[in-house]
Amino acid sequence: MQIFNNITQISPCCIALGCFDGIHIGHQRIIRSMCSYAKENSLSSAVFTFDVSPAALLGKSRRRTLLSIQDKMKTLEEIGTEYCFSVDFSSVRNISPDDFVKTILIDKLGVQAVFCGFNYRFGRNAEGTSDILLELCQKYGIKAFVSSPVCYGDQAVSSSRIRDLIENGDILTANRLLGRPFSVEQIITEGKHNGRTVGIPTINQNLPEGFVTPRFGVYASFVYIDGKRYEGITNVGVRPTVNGDHKNIETHILGRFYGDLYGKHVRTQFLDFVRDEKKFDNLEELSVQIKKDIDKVQKSSIFNKY
């Protein structure tokens, strides 16, 4: 996939419009529909998005990222997108809806078909709606397709709903709405080696700045190291038993693992919530509880569900 940070002419294309901040199952339906249409009509497939949510830039939301920009680009490419325009929001924020469609989409990008979600907003002061987009596309003779809400239960799937689920510990539902396990990829840092002293060594990662914070507690997890997947049990929190002073991710890899991981980038996927973080009187009590947690996840079928 070719990535542009400014508006550049490409071959005749169809385009999906949106922040796509989580690329959840609703977003995926829009993008897959666009890619299918592109293939059927011999057009290039493209996504027009932003590297930072406009709502966050305008101070209308507390930024709680679900997906790093690198993972966002990787996911778009895996779906089948050929081009991605990840532009600075300030470069288009004051454009009228009409100018956005005529000048940017048609004249500059050569767009022949547009795809978006039912709640898409665009243009100066977010004046443009999906209905206005349909009207403008009809006016200028290009196709437009607006996706209806994708629902799970009795609610529409949305990034804000997924953030709330993660923060409340309902990682199973969050993963269903994302269409993949929520994950964090961070460098391994050196800890205090407390786990090693009680026979339960761990790897430590900091939570990325601006990322949504999972509910403090213990999770069944997968850890990806050099392309290989390992089962794990992960604690998110401040490690109150050892008087931790910052939020971090601490994972014990189940089974045998040998190797120096310090300085490596490792992906941790969250699969299921096991229990809340708790302060124990000493490391021995913590060790006993962790062994119970390990036994619980190993007896469950959680690892086989992914």
Describe the model.
By secondary structure, the chain is of the alpha/beta class. It has two domains: 2-150, 3-Layer(aba) Sandwich (Rossmann fold); 181-305, Riboflavin kinase-like (Elongation Factor Tu (Ef-tu), domain 3, Beta Barrel), CATH 2.40.30.30. It is built from nine helices and 14 strands. Helix 4 crosses helix 5 and helix 6 packs antiparallel against helix 7. The longest helix has 17 residues, at 283-299.
Layout of helices and strands, plus pairs?
Layout: E1 2-4, E2 13-17, H1 25-40, E3 44-50, H2 54-57, H3 69-79, E4 83-87, H4 97-108, E5 111-117, H5 130-140, E6 143-147, E7 151-152, E8 155-156, H6 159-167, H7 171-178, E9 182-187, H8 194-197, E10 203-206, E11 217-225, E12 228-237, E13 248-253, E14 265-276, H9 283-299
Helix pairs in contact: 4-5, 6-7
Using only CA atoms, what is the Rg?
A: 22 Å
Helix content: 25-40%
Low-confidence stretches: none
CATH class of the largest domain: Alpha Beta
The first-to-last residue Cα distance is: 27 Å
Summarize the structure.
This protein has 306 residues and is α/β, with parallel strands linked by helices.
